[in-house]
Amino acid sequence: MSIHNKKIAIIGCGNLGLSILNGLLADPRINPKNITVTKRKTSSLEHLASTGIQITSDNRKAAQESELLIVALKPYTILEILGELKDVLDQDRHIMVSLATGISLKQIQSTIDLSLPIFRAMPNTAADVGESLTCIATKSNDESAKDLVTQCFNSIGNSIHINEELMDAATVLGACGIAYVLRFMRGMIQGGIEIGFDAHTATTIVTHTVKGAAQLLIERKQHPEHEIDKVTTPKGCTIAGLNEMEHNGFSSALIKGIVTSYNKIEK
User: The Pyrroline-5-carboxylate reductase dimerisation domain covers which part of the protein (predicted)?
Assistant: First the structure.
């Protein structure tokens, strides 16, 4: 089963849905005519009409005509709208993926009351540039459905399968994490400006430095401290800067922020 000839619907094409759509459109093997996106006010999607995708405000029609249904709705609306869609779903044809934070597979199953394969997925907005890390969870034993969903999210980056109990944690570390990293980068750029660079040059140095640091860990699979040790020479400027950051609570603040975000989801 290949994602490249499947009919895909993205229900609720907001910021995250758009990031996924842009990632899918970047895959030349996926026919845009097989993709339908929905939004209550479609005017914000009209600039995408030239790509060949189908744009509509009719969730029922989009769901009925799809095979892979990516539901990118807010947690407070998803169950109500799924209730409105359940009579057009076919358990022998449809595969459903929910992107809603905090809404369990059991809640979705109870709402639609059908035995179709249901997944939860948490990509991030780096899908826009084909670099999302998507965490996927399911209770389904349908291996062909698992393969199809994995193919879908691999087309916008990389994906891993985790236990559903970790999906809220995945939201914080992978999705909220984009904002944490960008805020850290903004701080580095501001520091770069203060020590003499113009904003454009500082941004270029910081973005490529962060990309290089991430690539080191991805390719070498080492602990971050292993790479840090290589640039912290005795009495050097790197260790002096790192120690000053730690004295001001750098790591502690980051960890507390992550835990605070997680607790917000749990509540």
Answer: 164-265
Annotation-wise, does 14 bind a ligand? yes
Q: Which fold has domain 3-162?
A: Rossmann fold (3.40.50)
Whether 119 shows a pLDDT value over 80: the answer reads: yes
Asked if the model's pLDDT at residue 4 lies above 80, the reply is yes
Q: How many whole angstroms separate alpha carbon 130 and alpha carbon 173?
A: 18
Q: Where are the alpha helices (DSSP H) in 26-124?
A: 59-64, 75-85, 105-112
8 labelled binding-site residue = no
**Average pLDDT, rounded, for the chain:** 93
CA separation for the pair 59, 245 (Å, rounded): 49
Is 72 known to sit in a ligand binding site?
Answer: yes
Q: Is 59 annotated as a binding residue?
A: yes
Asked if residue 26 belongs to a known ligand binding site, the reply is: no
Task: Confirm whether residue 123 is marked as ligand binding.
Answer: no
Overall fold of domain 171-266:
ProC C-terminal domain-like fold (1.10.3730)
Domain boundaries, the chain: 3-162, 171-266
Q: Give 196-205 pLDDT, tens digit per residue.
A: 999 999 999 9
